[in-house]
Design goal:
There is one protein chain. This protein has about 100 residues and is an alpha+beta fold. Helix content is about 30%, strand content about 30%. The protein is built from three helices and four strands. The protein has a four-stranded antiparallel sheet with strand order 1-2-3-4, covered by helices on one side. The longest helix is centred in the N-terminal third of the chain and has 15 residues. The chain is elongated. The model has no long low-confidence stretch (mean pLDDT about 90).
Amino acid sequence: MSSRNKYLSLDEKKKSRIILETLQLGVDLINNNTKRLKDIYNQLNNHLKSEPTIVIDYLKIVNFHSLIEFSDIIEDDYLICIAVYINQTRLIDNISYLSTGSSSI
């Protein structure tokens, strides 16, 4: 658990679960052959926005090795990066996926 979570109320901690859910949704979408970045971003943004207290700072899907954002199609190992605010607290998280089939938070 992040050290920043100590700044969150119990209710805010429950709401912050949407971050992990969004990361997992991204992996699921990509693994189920949704490869167009626009389609993935739309679904992930909509999922995050379903929690009104969340303010998105950034949501990026980048090449795992170069950290350069994919331009249109995800074709390689990737990293999904999220930063959001819940009130005044900024929370960041990411998940990686390697072609070996492993993912890691």
